[in-house]
Amino acid sequence: MNHQYHPLGFTGSRLAQGYWRLAEWGMSDQELVRFIEQGIEAGITTVDHADIYGDYLCETLFGKALALKPSLRDKLQVITKCGIMLPSKQRPEITSHRYDQSTGHIIQSVDHSLSNLQVESIEMLLLHRPSPLMDPDHIAEAFEHLYTVGKVKHFGVSNFSAQQFDLLQSRLDMPLLVNQVELSPLELKRFKDGTLEHAQQHAVTPMAWSPFAGGDLFKLEGINPTLHQAMSVVAEAHQASLDQIALAWLLRHPSGIVPVLGSGQIERVQSAQKALSITLTDDEWFAIWVASQGHPVP
């Protein structure tokens, strides 16, 4: 099958805006429209969703805003995820917290997402987590269908190891373009387990969820004083904030990491964008690496 895909990872903005906390932001539809517009003005056009975010409500809130200003749609790259079953008042048929990566569920989940987001197609679908019952042939059947009918343009995964990624890729004609994993100066596991080397080898874009370690970055003094000191020295040298340095540290990696921001405060989003103009030296990058590890490089 001759799929026309972008050969070098996913084409989107260097930072992505995550909407997993959208239901907590307390924005009116019109305020959300303005937030999306200001994000686009700041150069952040990739938006990250999942079916389960906000107890299955975030996609719907976002869709209402898009419906108010349909011209925003073509300026965005919309990502959503599926595969986690979460018991909820919104989904009374789900009786236990588990995974479902069956052909039928993936297709049905995308149909729900398109309806909730009020869009005809999405740029990227990710499998939210690897399942111990993952059947790559069933997933491939769903992906082929969704691509053929024009509902999903590209596909990827989230929280997959290199081996899990390769298993799924072996059944697909189209390349998986994204692996979204947890990465931050406090979370080094994926830097060490081959995930990022694998991404570079296969032209996969790594996206970083929780680039500020779920807010722990802002409590660093109590969690890891050594890392706090190292990052503070680098921040002072660049006249930057700790969160800008955390992003610049991720952006410096040769795999092309795309951090996913989680704030609903536009000032924080605009501040984050300034990290793109900060280039850390090797000395600065390794100072943060060593401080996070707690020991020198071998």
TrEMBL record:
PANTHER family: NADH-SPECIFIC METHYLGLYOXAL REDUCTASE-RELATED, OXIDOREDUCTASE YDHF
Protein name: Predicted oxidoreductase
Family, as annotated: Belongs to the aldo/keto reductase family. Aldo/keto reductase 2 subfamily.
Keywords attached to this entry: NADP, Oxidoreductase
Alphabetical list of InterPro entries matching this protein: AKR, AKR_Detox_Biosynth, NAD(P)_OxRdtase_dom_sf, NADP_OxRdtase_dom
A single Gene Ontology CC term: cytosol
UniProt domain NADP-dependent oxidoreductase: residue ranges: 15-287
GO molecular function, one term: oxidoreductase activity
